[in-house]
Amino acid sequence: MRSEEEMMELILGIARDDDRIRAVLLNGSRANPEIAKDIFQDFDIVYIVSELNSFTQDNSWVDVFGDRLIMQLPEEMIIGEKNNHSFSYLMLFKDRNRIDLTLFPIDKLETGFRPDSLTIPLIDKDKRFQNLASPTNADYLIQQPTEKLFMDCCNEFWWVSTYVGKGLWRNDITYAKDMLEGPVRSMFMKIIEWNIGIQTNFNTSVGQSGRNMKKYISNKLYDKILSTYPDSNIKNIWSSLFLMTDLFDEYAKEIAKKMEFTYNESEASNVREHLKWILMKSDNK
Fold this sequence. Notes:
14% strand, Beta Polymerase, domain 2, elongated
């Protein structure tokens, strides 16, 4: 596996030798001093280029970065999100290094470019980024909710929870799991994150999918959250769903109290009763 120093020298050397590449920016976890380094950190790189066409008309130019296991070109795919201004090469190499390389044209900088808060200029041939602020995780901090967002989150959680129960009664395991791990999980995690935000004055980040949340919550709560991830056994899904509703209700009430929001306790109580009714009907089938 090539070292970090070898990879950075390769990335920067290519840019130095190519007059079309006017700047090199480092984004992501490698620009964040608070993140512990490991072998799976990507090299999130932006090349600011004079134009795109000469690069994208023949994508074999990226072979210079090394032998690849797989590459994805998001802007050439019909699935996923695309950026109309830039072009990306997501590359995993045989030595297990990964580069997420984005090409961004100079003529779109003023209208289509917003630097990530975790951005470090590594090369700046035209002095375009000399006033860039020092990197921070500001873009990734837990955002304080409005009362409207909080109430919408609660309503979505309770509403879609009924879909999980319906799916379990019908023995539609894939449907029930999809609802649980999709919209229900998403709203559940927001409530957990907002509680962490309140405790930390909304000055921290829990990372993607809450991967750093265990730093900010008790071991007991973290273990309970892990217990909300069930297998495909119907009884286990029911147990996980009821645990999620208990935790959601508890922490939503805390948020409402601390932020002086309205929490629709009747809505929560009605849905919890409805789920118990569905479970009773399931037991009597």
